[in-house]
Amino acid sequence: MAMRREADARSCDVAGCDEVSERSLNIKQVVDTGMSLKDPEARTVHLCREHYKEYKKISKSSRKLDSIY
Question: For residue range 42-56, what is the model confidence (pLDDT) as tens digits?
Answer without folding.
Answer: 999 999 999 999 999
